[in-house]
C-alpha cells in the first residue's frame, strides 16, 4: 500500500546469512509474482553507480522484454513495481549514491539492501529506512540447520551421536550460520567419531583466533597442496560475485595446478573438477545459477587474500601501489573507477607468472564522448616478465598489444576481454605454449595464419574472427575444445575442412554462416562425440541431419532454417541434430518443419523467438515433447493459437509468452501436474481465459502489464 518504494536494510555481522535470506525471498514464487521485476545486484566494492543501474536495466529487460534504451530506463523503472536487492553494500557513500540515482518505483516497490553497516550510521545518513537485524541462530533453530549441513560421509556419525555433538557444535559456532557451514565442511569426509574429536581438539588449539579465522585456519592446514592452490586463486577474484566455472577451469589449467596430480587414470579436467567439488563440500565456495557459476563469501575471501599475500601466492591491489615488484609472482588488479593501468613502466616484475585485472567498462557518458579520445594503457611494465603464464585483463583500454608479447614464450592464457582491440600483432604466433585466447567483446577479425599452428591451443573465444582460407593452416590444431565467435571459410571442402581433425571440440559457435558452410560443418561434426554446445548464426541454415550424431546439451540456431525436401533419399535416413536445450531465432519454421526438427523425444527446454515459428497455430503433440520442462515463446507475430495435446507435455513446469500480439487462445494447460510458473506479458484476455477454465492456474500466473509504463519511451 506504500507510495513509491520502501527501502529495507538487512544488517548483521558477516556470515549471519543476510544474502542467503535475501536470495530465498527473491526466489519465492509468490514474491516473484507480486512484482514486475525482481533484480539481484552484487558488484565488487568501489564499483561506480552507473554499473548498478546497468545491471538493473539488463535484468529488467530480460524479465519484461521492455526493449527501452539505457538512457530511457530510469523513467520506465519509476513506473514499475520492482523488487531490487542490493547485496553486500558495505560502503555508506556507495549505498547513498545508488539510492540517490534509483527512481522511486511504482506503489509497493521495494529496495532491499544487505550490509554490515551499523543501524545508527544508516539512519543518520538516510531517513525513512526500515532496518532488520539478522541475529545468530538459537540452539533449537541450529539443530534444524545442522540436519541440512551435515551430509556426505559424516551424516551417519552425526545421527548416531547427535545428542552428544549438538551442544559442542553450537558452543563452537555460536549459532553463526557461516561457522556451522565451515564446521560441516571440516567434518564432511570424517566417518568415524574419533575423527570428529580430532577436529574438535584441533580447533581448540587455535582458540585464541576469532571464530571464522579459526575454522578457516584448520581447513587450510588440512588441505593437500593442490587444493591450497585452487583455494588461494580465489584471492584474485572479487568476493560474493558469481564467477564463470568454465573460465576458472581454464585459468587453473594454464597455471598448471593439476600437473602434480597427473596420471592415476584421471584427466586434468577431472582432477580440477574434483578439487572444486571438495572446496564446495568444505563450505569454502558456493555453486550458483544452476551450477554454472561459483562465488566465495566475503569473510572466506578475506582469509584467502591474507594467506595468498603471506605465502607470496598472489598480490591484490586496487590503488596500483605495488611494493616489492621484483619478488611478485601473482598480481591481481581491480580498478572500478576507470579503464587505465597506472603502473610505472620503470617497475620490473621479473618473477611474475600471473597477471589478472578487472576494470570499469565505459559508462554511457564515456561512450558518447569516445571521439575525444580516452587515455589508453600500455603494458610496458611487463617487458621483463619473461615467465608469465597467465594474462587475463577485462575492461582495460589497450587499443593495441606490443609486438613484444610474442617473447613471452611461457604464456598459456591470454585473456583480453573488452580491451578496445582492433587487431593482434603477428608475434602472437610465437606463443607456442598458448592454451587459451579470449578476445571477446573486441573488434579483432583476423589473426595471422601461423597462429593456428600452435599445437597446444585448446580454447579460442572471439566475436567475428575469420578462420584461415587454407585448411592446411589449421591441420595441427587437434587439441581445440572451444571455438567461439568464428567465421567458416567458403573455400573449405568436405575433404579439407579442418574441423574434421578437431576430435576434442566441446563448444562451437559460428557466425555469418552460409547454407553451404553449414552443410559442410554438419558433415564434419558427425564423429565429434565430445561436442556438447553448438551455436550457428547466419542468413540461411539448412535442417541439420547426421547419421552418427550424439544429442547435444545446447543448440542455438539464429537464421532461417531451410527445408530438406529436395535432399537425396540417403540424407533423409539421418536423424536431425537436436539437444536437451534448444533456442531458435528468426528460423521461420512451419509446424511441419518444426515437427521434423523435433522428431526425437530429447528436448528439456525450448525457446521459439523472433519469428522462429510462422504458422498461425502451434501444436505440441506426440512423444517429442514428453521431457519438455520449459517452453518460451517470444515475438512470434503471426501466432494465434497454442494447443497442447493430451499427455504431450507431462513434465512441463514453466511457460513464458511475450510479444505475441495475435495470440488469443491456449488449450491443454489444465491438469498439468508439474506446471509451476506461467509468465505472460500484456495478455489480459489470455489470463482471463485461463483463470475461467481452471481456478488453480491463477496462483501460478504472473502477468506483467508493460503497456502501463512502456509508453514513457
Automatic annotation (TrEMBL):
Keywords: Plant defense, Repeat. One of its GO terms (molecular function) is ADP binding. Pfam families: LRR_14, NB-ARC. PANTHER family: DISEASE RESISTANCE PROTEIN RP (PTHR23155), DISEASE RESISTANCE PROTEIN RPM1 (PTHR23155:SF1052). It comes from the Eukaryota. Residues 4-133 form the AAA+ ATPase domain. The keyword Cytoplasm does not apply. This is AAA+ ATPase domain-containing protein. GO terms for biological process: defense response to other organism. InterPro entries: AAA+_ATPase, Apaf_helical, Disease_R_plants, LRR_dom_sf, LRR_R13L4/SHOC2-like, NB-ARC, P-loop_NTPase, WH-like_DNA-bd_sf.
